Write the structure tokens for this entry.
Amino acid sequence: MSTTERTGHRRDLAAAGIAALLVTAAVAVGTFIEHTDGTLHLNWPPLYARWDPHVGPGTPAALAVAVAVIAYGPALAARLSWRPLLLAAWTASMAWIWSLALVDGMYRGVAQRLTTKYEYLQVVDRFEDIPATLRDFTRHILIDSPDPWPAHTAGHPPGAALTFVLLDRVGLGGGAWAGAFCVTAGSTAVAAVLITLRALADEATARRAAPFLVLTPAAIWVGASADGYFAAVTAWTIALLALAATRTVRSPAAAALGSGLLFGLVCYLSYGLTLFALVVAAVLLITRSLRPLPLLLAGAAVVPLIFTLAGFNWWEAYHLLVERYHQGAGGIRPYGYFVWANLACTVLVVGPATVAALRRTAASAPATFGRLYTGRTTPADRLTALVLAALLALLAADLSGMSKAETERIWLPFTTFLSAATALLPGAARRHWLTAQAVLALLLNHLLFTGW
């Protein structure tokens, strides 16, 4: 190992160490605040979780998947042809998510997740007349309104609840099917990010990131939360746009239109995911192409038009949501704690390998911006620009004050792209970082019972 490589490795370890101290501080300060005045509404801050050491039926599978990905993932990612690699990454991601979810058992870990009093399945029966419910949606957002929506339904546009209503209509009702849908859909985000990296950077970059995208601690919250499904929709939005902008797909026009359609859907799944417009803009900047923009905008108008014609007013609902947010725990939780503790939470979601990779991303940012200006970018530059856009969107969400706690699931769409930075990690250290990712995920899932 050269002197430069040793220096880089030491700085990576230092970044991971500082991140660990941030997490420690968030746990210690958060525990003190919660025991003192109870304003955090968290049992194990900064996570929405409680201390509950346990093993379960998914434990052997989770250990097996972790060992297999660490031992064979980097070599397979380098050797497999492209399409089999996408299939293998998706399969491995699904196995990792399922095995972690089943550590808590099928009922507690999957089937019960989306059936609690806060969740979308509580309102399926209220959508018997979908157009009428959409027209009436905003009347039930505030806590003091007649028959108010549960927290998650009130906190999101109706596209989120409608997903589970439509699943119920096709015979896939109940918590088990809803959880299985979120795991299956959420696991496809790995393939979408790989496609994005290949189109924007190069295939070698995508291959280096693949094992880390699979073996991420974020998998704990993908299985099974609706935000895992949201993460997949946003990831495919960016993948289709990258293909359209680089014209590396048979029909760039169809890809641009499809990206717009998905982005329109994203805005009706979660208000906060409108921030993904920053990542969309980054893709156009990286590729120095506005060709996809007209079809992207046309596609993005479709879902809003449908909901608006059906009687749902997005802007009115958003303003009511802000009021509802401050009526509940969001109005009590201290901004001064969560504005930095959310970042500690993100460390636990992305893992130490991504923290080290983000250190490298930040270090290369000044040179990257210079080459973006001239148009003479390297694959690493294009990866850096994509990751920085996702990080900027996450920081905007953090500073907004509308993400106080529970960001381990809310920010899954952003953290999915942060994990792409792991392609910057040197080959000699890759298995060590993969091991650190797996150990963190296994410890979190076996020592805590995580919500959502």
About this structure: The first strand starts at residue 49 and ends at 51. The beta strands are 49-51, 448-450.
